[in-house]
Write a structure and sequence with these properties.
Blueprint: E1 3-6, E2 11-14, E3 22-27, H1 38-56, E4 60-67, H2 83-91, H3 95-112, E5 120-123, H4 128-140, E6 144-147, E7 150-153, H5 167-174, H6 178-181, E8 199-204, E9 222-224, H7 226-238, E10 242-248, H8 252-267, E11 272-278, E12 281-283, E13 286-287, H9 298-303, H10 308-316, E14 324-325, H11 328-352, H12 363-377, H13 382-394, H14 400-414, H15 428-442, H16 446-458, E15 461-466, E16 469-474
Amino acid sequence: MIQLFNTLSRKKQRFKAIRAKQVGLYTCGPTVYFYAHIGNLRTFLFEDILKRVLYFNGYQVRHVMNITDVGHLTSDADTGEDKIEKEAKKERKTAWEIAKFYTKAFKRDLSLLNIKSPDIWCKATDYIKDQIDFIKILERKGFTYKIKDGIYFDTSKLKTYGRLWPEEMRKIFQKKDLKEFQKYARIPMVEGKKSPTDFALWKFTPKGVKRQMEWDSPWGRGFPGWHTECVVMSAKHLGVPFDIHCGGIDHILIHHTNEIAQAEAAFGKILARFWLHGEFLLLKEGKMAKSKGNIITLGEIIKKGFDPLSFRYLCLTSHYRSQLRFSWESLKSAQNALFSLKEKFREIREKSEKEKSLKKISKRAKRYLNDFLTFINDDLNTPKALALLWKVIKDEKLSNKEKEKIVLEFDKIFGLRLKKVKKLKIPQEVKKLVEQREKYRRKKEWEKADAIREKLKKMGYLIEDTKEGPKIKKINQI
């Protein structure tokens, strides 16, 4: 039984798919005007864990992710420049080139983090006709109005607007107390809009301006609104309602609220049954954001010598609904833990080869597997599941064959690529140096022995002295 925290109901609920053992999943993808930062990537990691948990429980998953390559403006008030066109001017490229380049970079980041790709990628620019047709539905049903810069959704016409908001915020909105409302959502009032919460469905190209991305519509030449894109693409591929919609916590007040409003106005149904949101990743100075210029990319992490899966490990240590404070020290600790895990698993595999084949697992091993399922099915509790993994590693009452089986089963969720951990191949030169060091140790020539230890370290190997003899470990073995 999977329990998930549903932002829509504000509580944990038992998950049950609309269609038996088949899940429709939509995850808000990137706006491809720059590299994704690690705060963005934390959200995609939590969604990957969700997807793996669904698979683990025997579900088939139809996963759709959008690529926003038009329509995302620099302000939540539907003002400012299109982020992609702005970057195109800056880099002296076409908007299409910018979108293509950063889409490719994003997909590379997903691969490096071992995040499973969606079944369907949706580019907003491929669905312009669908979006125009959808806005026509809203227009026929009386939910739109026109001002000088575009066609807007009239939020006052939908009594249930703000389903994801805190109850107090919704009450203030319904009382039309805009001054009090702005304490919750600081959306500036744009000339012509009836309410700050009204949002653009279609934006007109300003007179005298030639955009790279613009299309003809019944209302005038322009481009679609960001919130409309996701509704159209998710509904087209998953139907309405579908099972789960995910994104970052910053999507709750505006983007996802406006998605729900449009779907409910057009179809008379809530877009998705479950809405899951990942919390922020914080830096010392606060929330990470491109607009603030305080971002860290996966590329920077790699340049500093970190295995990208160390960041994945770090994210596993914190629940997706808890804020995670990032520091280079915490990433270093995560990397050390990951390398230690791989080294210990390598030892387990080597010992496992010498044991008899496993005909059935013990009750003890079964308890671990059951506990693991309980933890991951309890709203994706990876911190508890990760602690259980280390408990398995250290449990001397389990056979190595059992440990190997359990760890690989756990890693179907963790995604740390432990299956790829192989027996360490020691170069002959390293073996000879280790033998020479042992001779010096027997003669108690400690300085010479230490000199060899340092030489081996520079070559990328560590020596651990044990009762059974020296053990050789590869530094940063991935």
